Amino acid sequence: MTLSDIDAAVTQHTAKSLINPSNSLFGPFIEGTAVDDEGNVFAVNFGNAASLATIGQITPQELFYEDKFTKGTALNALRFFIKGDKAFAYAADYVNHRIVELTINEEEIISRNFCSSPNMLQPNDIALSRKGFLYLSGMRWRPNNQAGDGDLWMCTPDGTPKRIEILGRTNGIELSPDDRRLYVSEASNKNGSPVSNKIWRYDVDPNTGTVSNKMLFFDFVKINTQNIDIDGMRTDHNGNLFVTRNGGKEVLKMSPAGEILASIKTSFSFVSNVEFGGTNGTTMFIVGRCGLNTASGQGVGCVDIWENDAPGRAWWILQDNE
Fold first, then answer.
1. Does this UniProt record's set of keywords contain Hydrolase (predicted)?
2. Which stretch of DSSP H or E encloses residue 45?
3. What is the residue-level pLDDT of the chain in tens, covering all 322 positions?
4. Using CA atoms, how far apart are residues 133 and 144, in angstroms rounded to an integer?
5. Number of domains within the chain
6. Which residues on neighbouring strands pair with residue 229, listed in sequence order?
7. Number of continuous H segments (helices) and E segments (strands) in the chain
8. Taking the alpha carbons of 65, 66, 69, 70 in that order, is the dihedral positive or negative?
9. Which long-range contacts (CB under 8 A, 24 or more apart) does 155-158 make?
10. Bridge partners for 313 per DSSP
11. Opening angle at CA 260, ends 259 and 262, nearest 5
12. Long-range contacts: 190-195, Cβ < 8 Å, 24+?
């Protein structure tokens, strides 16, 4: 089956441009979209290509946080969390191999190192459970990948890091709405180009955070697009998985059974991440590097939006829903 076959078989949608090259205040490394309990959506790399320690709010475009304390901080992922009457955010610093915890107060944001290990490859992306277990993907990008160029870690609610598995180049990571399934992407390169892209699914014990029973959820060789990288992933409240194709100008909507339900076409090629926010949690914010052929590290960050038929998992949980 080819990509054109899939395009003919699944529902086609087109996302609407929200932030474009003419009005963007984000850099080309825009990533790590995350929603807070009010439905506001944030992303990293607010500023230019050198602003790697920043987080910005998407609407309105304004600076939310900048790490000025730790040398070399480069943020790539973000998640919000409510514990009691306090609001937190967890940000992945892939240069310093750590998760930063941000305590959000009305007057200020207080940061501290929450979970770290020099043995982590990055971390790159984050999935966060209701009980505060953090699951981390990481990767080493090389022209020719091998086993060990990706890893899967967990940080317990008290900040203890635990390595779960060594993999190929991992990136997107997400939990199912009931926290009982964990999705992780794995890819590999040959001669500088992607030649394999897969999604694995694990069983999770929501109470202990334990991960087990790895199984193949989807192999993109089935639709002849194994050469297009997976980047960020999110689930909605119905359990559908939304997968960005970085370089493919689309987000795929997949059912819990691994069926491709829809393709959401974007205005830019290099789609890096998605998150659901807005008043009802149903607006999908799609971020990535502007343009169709813009080189890595060049240009600015773009945002498209698209309306889903269900709220996102993260938004739903932050409303204190079961």
1. yes
2. strand 41-46
3. 455 555 567 899 999 999 999 999 999 999 999 999 999 999 999 999 999 999 999 999 999 999 998 999 999 999 999 998 999 999 999 999 999 999 999 889 999 999 999 999 999 999 999 999 999 999 999 999 999 999 999 999 999 999 999 999 999 999 999 999 999 999 999 999 999 999 999 999 999 999 999 999 999 999 999 999 999 999 999 999 999 999 999 999 999 999 999 999 999 999 999 999 999 999 999 999 999 999 999 999 999 999 999 999 999 999 987 6
4. 32
5. 1
6. 246
7. 2, 25
8. positive
9. 155/99, 155/114, 155/115, 156/209, 157/131, 157/132, 157/133
10. none
11. 145
12. 190/143, 190/144, 190/145, 191/143, 191/144, 192/143, 193/227, 194/226, 194/227, 194/228, 194/229, 195/226, 195/227
Number of neighbours of residue 218 by Cβ within 10 angstroms: 23
Please identify which residue in the block is written with the tokens 């926010």: 277
**Residue at token pair 């194709």:** 245
Q: 21: domain range?
A: 3-319
CATH of the domain at 80: 2.120.10.30
- Give residue for tokens 């090259």: 21
Q: b/e for 129-160, b at 16 or more Cβ within 10 A?
A: beebbbbbbbbeeeeebeeebbbbbbbeeeee
- Bridge partners (DSSP) of residue 273 are 287
Return the amino acid letter for 312: G
Task: Identify the helix (H) or strand (E) that includes residue 30.
Answer: strand 26-35
Tokens 């009931």 belong to which residue?
178
